[in-house]
Sequence to fold (474 residues):
Amino acid sequence: MTRILAIFFIVLYVYTLISTISVVLLENRNPVKSLSWILVLILLPFFGLFFYLLLGQNFRKEKIISKKSIRRISERPVASHDTELLNTNKIRGNHINLVKLLFKNSEATGYTDNKIEILSDGNSTFRSMFESIKNAKEHIHIEFFIFEDDKISNQMRELLISKANEGVRVRMIYDFIGSWFLSKRYLYSLKKAGVYARPFLPFKLRLGRSKINFRNHRKILVVDGKIGFTGGLNVADRYIYGNALGKWRDTFVRFEGAAVHGLQLLFLNDWYFVERKLISDSKYFPEPQKFNDNLVQIVSSGPDTDWESIMQGMAAAIMSATKYIYIQTPYFVPPDVILNTIQIAALSGVDVRLMVPVKSDSRLSDGCTSSYLGEILEAGVRVFRYEKGFLHSKAIVIDDFISIVGSANMDERSFTSNFEVNAFVYDSETAIQLKNLYFGDSEFCKEITLESWNNRKRSQKLKESITRLFSPLV
Fold:
């Protein structure tokens, strides 16, 4: 009897394995990613199937957050302009196609005449956010991947409670997995004070239907519909006091003007998903002031979008460069389209520079990153490894005009699995600020040469090559 049961379970497993591999093939993903999952399924019996059912399924076609179901949100008086109506004097000729691309692939309309401030460290970022929150009169909308239960996060909590007690409407979205260690006390104190705190995609163990792999990695703060923030920083002490990796260096951007409406729109889309409540009151979109001569697109992407919008935007921006491209990212595990555009730009004579941390918080990502450095060095890219703490900044600056700042890393997860937001800014003043910031960070870097990189130990090269096999899954 035992033998019969064993044979039955083996047959059932083989049938399930073959069926799952068939599903992977029929999804027509990137062949490398499909092959990676097939190898995991075959080489890790039972565990591979478990990991795929938990983490590997593609729900893009299901539209986890259906924009069509909340189309009415976009009918409020948002201060945006269709691409056809943009004042092309604000956009250089070789960049107008980038603006049009982002309008078509993510409905990222253009917001003109904004006030833009670049925040380059935890102290200045939290100081600016706290000041804006303290001055809030009507509402505060806050959304972060990670709220740690630590000193700075509790300062944020107390401030939100104080504003809620004043009658300000406070809505908060936290990622369920990213903010896993938030205590019940922390959340209860917020809710008791009247803060509407909601988790994004709380984990439910439904094998075969789990969405644990899709996380909300966005960072957004909107105050009274007039001030908005986004970037790569989370609410945690490590950006001020550091941790085992040292102080975390990140980039945030503060907006006043029409661009705030783009961040507001995205937050309310996410709020509809977590609360199933449509908020369309015009008071959340006050008439914006006009400031400087610039244009901003707030670009979102994730499992709910038809296109990998941020990845496409980055690729198009890189290909538009004629002088220089300076990139900062904590994890450099680029899909082929990004890798190829970087190589093409460098081979074409564009000054391409990549800055990554000497060590990140993920050994797997470090190995994957290292495996890509040789081939971009060969193309002429200059590579810098940041040694003053952990470089967590996700920023690109191009030709003294295009700046890209946001939550998306240069890896498969950010481009396909996470909910992300990046600001694409078309403005010389902002770009020059970011460029100077890049030069300042370069002082704390060690540049890698192709010769020294090729001379590293063979065992290290093998280790990196093995980790690269998992890069499509990172």
